[in-house]
Amino acid sequence: MVIPFPVTKVTASQDAVNRMLANVAFERALTAEAADEIDEALRLYREALQRYPQSPGSLVNLGNIWLRSGNRNLAEAYYREAIVIDPQYLLAHLNLAEVLDFQEDLGGAIAVYKDALQIDPRCAEAHHGLAILYRENGELPQSLEHWEFYVSSVKHNPPDDRLLCAARNEIERIRKVLKIA
Fold first, then answer.
1. What is the rounded CA–CA span in Å between residue 59 and residue 40?
2. Are 69 and 85 in contact (CB under 8 A)?
3. I need a surface site. Which of 5, 29, 92, 163 has the fewest CB within 10 A?
């Protein structure tokens, strides 16, 4: 049997070159995004994905741009695609949970934060998000558990003293409601 067209294979060296060029495009996209050159950042993230489609970082950053521009549906799609490519990519889970919360899908957001905790049980951001969502859902014992874990995980290196203070106040408020000393 004669093959009418030459068969092209991606070799290991071609894959390495594509990854390198994708990393260059990704770094340039970060720079463009920081300079608020959003159209250029979008173009460069897409170029990075074209060169290396298995890049969850490019997908998450595209989702972030669309989220900032108000397109939550497109942001959600990019975050979900990043999770399909790399189910262990924690940032995609955290960002997806935020979008679902914005869309008032509390059950979906809770499920995604729980997925994030399967990846990293000590993830302060996931505990913080769950604490808030459980409180909003009226599930105070679960909220308290996550607030306490959040405070214990960030007390030595808080992201912001106001956040830590607010978390401690929330713990005290819930304990009073639940009549826990």
1. 15
2. no
3. 5
* Main-chain dihedrals φ then ψ at residue 63, nearest 5 degrees: -60, -40
Name the band, by pLDDT with cuts 50, 70 and 90, for residue 174.
Answer: very high
Question: Rounded distance, CA 137 to CA 134, Å?
Answer: 5
Measured N-to-C along each axis, helices 106-119 and 90-102 cross at an angle, to the nearest 10 degrees, of 170
d(CA 151, CA 128): 9
Query: To which H or E segment does residue 25 belong?
Result: helix 12-34
Question: Domain spans of the chain?
Answer: 122-181
Query: How many CB atoms neighbour CB 43 within 10 A?
Result: 15
Q: Whole-model pTM?
A: 0.84
- Dist CA 31 CA 76 (whole Å): 23
Question: Cα(164)–Cα(157) distance, rounded to whole angstroms?
Answer: 10
pLDDT beyond 80 at 21: yes
The pLDDT value recorded for residue 158 is 66
What is the C-alpha to C-alpha distance for residues 44 and 106, in angstroms, rounded to an integer? 33
| pLDDT tens for each residue of 109-165 | 999 999 999 999 999 999 999 999 999 999 999 999 999 999 998 877 767 778 888
